Structure formats: C-alpha cells, structure tokens
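Session log. Operator J.P. requested a structure for one protein chain; no other inputs attached. Running the standard single-chain path with token output.
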Amino acid sequence: MQPAARLMEAVRRSNMGALRRASLITSSCTQRRVCARTAPDFGNIRPLDGVKILDLTRVLAGPFATMILGDLGAEIIKVEKPGSGDDTRSWGPPFVGSESAYFLSVNRNKKSIAVNMKDPKGTKIVKQLAEACDVLIENYIPGKLAAMGLGHEDLMKTAPHIIYCSITGYGQTGPLFKRSGYDAVACAMSGLMHVTGPEDGDPVRPGVAMTDLATGLYAHGAIMAGLLQRTKTGKGMHIDCNLLSSQVACLTHVAANFLNGGIEAKRWGTAHGSIVPYQSFKAKDGFLVIGAGNDQQFSTVCRITGLSELIDDPRFKSNKLRVQYRKELIQVLSSRFSEKTTAEWLELFEGSGIPYGPISSIKQVFSEPQVAHNGLILEMEHPVAGKISVPGPAVRFNSFNIPAPLPPPVIGQHTVEVLKSILGYEDNYIAELIKDKTISQNEVQ
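Structure written below.
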C-alpha cells in the first residue's frame, strides 16, 4: 500500500488523526487536550519520527531547514552529485581533515546518497524515492526538475501525498522567477543591506547569511504545517518559499514605517531608529550594548552611570524627546562608558533589569556558561574528520529529548543502504548502477 493510501486509511479509522508509520500523531485541539492527560508514556518519541524527507537542496537555506527537521526525528535522505556533492563541501578553508566546516555546520542527521540525476536511471531512482517519502524539498531554478519529470505536477500523479517544498530566489512565477537565488543579492534587493551598516557609511552585508537562514526557517515551519494539513485532507501540496519574500517579510516594523508613514529607512549602525538609548557603547577595553525601552529604564541607566542629572533634563523626559535629541544624549553617555572596562560596567548593570550585554567574539560566545547550559555545542565523531563540534538546536522541548546526533555524512555514504531498505533494490542491480556510474557508494564506515 502506498504511503498516501496508508495515510488516508488511518485518517478514516481514527478521529484523532493519522498515526503514520507509527509515529506522527495529530488530532483536533480538543482531542489533543484529552491525549495530554490520558496518553500512555511512549518514551522519547519525537514529532517527526517515521517521516521521510527527500532532500534535493544544496548550500544553506534548504540544508538548514532539513537539519532542523532531522533534529525533530525525520529521516533525511540527501541526494548529492557523485564526486563533488553539495557545493559547500568545497567551501573553505577551514577544513576539518578533508571536510568543509561550512558543510559540517548544517548537515547533521542526514543520509547521503550519490545519484547522477542526468542519467535517466538516476532520475528514476529519485522519483521512486519521492514516492516512498513524505516530503520532497528542492532548490532548483523553477522548471529545472519539471524538465526531468520530477516537478510537483509530475509527482502528484504518482505520489499525491507528497509535501513538495521549493526554495528559490524569487518565487515560482513573476518577472524574476528564472533568476538564480543568492543570499547576498536577495539581502540587497530586499532592503536588508540598505538598513545594515554604519550610519554614515556604506551598506553592509550581515556577518552570516541571514536571508538564507530566514528562508530555511520559513521552509521548516511550512513543511510542518504541510504535514499537519495532510492529516486533515489526506492530500499533499506544493510550498513556494523564496529568499526575496522571506527577507521582505522579515523587514517587519521597518517596512511598516514606510508602508504606513512613507518613512524611508536608513542605516543606524548598532543603534535603533525609534528607541534611544539602544545601541553599543565603547568601554575602555571593548563594547557593550545597553537598551532603555521606557522612561523607568532610562532613569535606571542614568543612576548606574552616575548621570542622574539627565533624568530631569527636559530634552530627555520621554523616548520621543530622546530620539529628537539623540546626538546630544549619546555623546554624554559615550563619554561616560569610555571611563570603565566592559567587565566593570557589566557588574554595575547586573540585577538592574536593564537589557545589557557585551559584544562578544565567537571565542567568547562559546566560553559563555549560558551557551553551554543551553546545549548549543554539539560534539560528534565524524567518520573522516574525527571529533567535530557544531552549533546545537536552538529550541528545547519538555516532552522529548533530542538524542545524540548523527554526524554529517560523506558523499554517498548511505547510497546502498537507502536503495536496499527503501526501494528494495537487489545487490546485482545496485552493482550495475555503480558500474554505470549512475550512483556511487562511499565505503567509509
């Protein structure tokens, strides 16, 4: 029985939704409340245990999304080009042994299969895997997979249950849909780069690819919504995620200021256009960020810094006035913050209720006890690179634990395993595919 048929049969049998592959339990809001009180202890079952995801993405946005889904229990089958694999495998230095640190950062909990999709037999493998999976996620230029018979419309004929998520630069239609999507370009076109950088300086690209990462987060959430929707309808869907839309949506109040007030945004450096003070200040030996979002917090900042006379200064009595007299206030505060070290200021602000913190180097970030406490350093034993560490999941759950992760795979590490376990291929046929260079298998253990 095909996965879609199993799903619809489960929906018909149970008012509490589909238990697909004995793992994905959903229900109506009322039923969920009842289950929370009465359900037996199933142990450490994660939300996506049993869900299979075919990952045709490369670089960052897609792999970031599937890594999060893998943390939540999904089986991620990453399809790579034999020989070179994901583009980021060559992005370095640094390399850990032969492995790119960039690739290692976003590809844990995945199985790699190496398939030549230009070979018709390779295309057939991908199509069969899609039919056996719950989700397909890809980041090809619109039309590229359809030309290979792997587009959404093609797969809906044989896999109507599939949640098909496309990640592109600009969307599936429109004047720019054929353009390739790159984080830096979308960052520029979306307006993010326009508002990032020194107040009197040039536009600056954020230090990490925030547009790619935002798109990955949107894609991860959309796929979760798609799986939930399927338990209600029994049908798959097509999800259109793109870099431009993701970043424009993330402009939030900057966009609203323009759309409602006609106010063009500008760069503020570390400062905030609508709150003063809310920025970094230079201490004797480093920088710290201080914020005062209301009048009470501003008064506290003045007392801690020994500038109590500013509390009753008519220029600074409200945030609106502080924004108006920004330069005068920041000049006084900057002069005072330069008189002590960062550590001295941090000690003075401790327990004050004021938002504050140092501008940390990456070394300082991973020396911060709270970072370690939050489980943000994951260590794994990689089959080639040895012991590696990567940033851990950002979210914790009280009903299940995220187990020790699988290390990022080498190219084609799981080709034979996946073809045998999911598609039931025989050894002789697999050997033939390897001989024809349709697939490759890495022999690393």
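Operator note: Residues 210-233 form the longest helix (24 residues).
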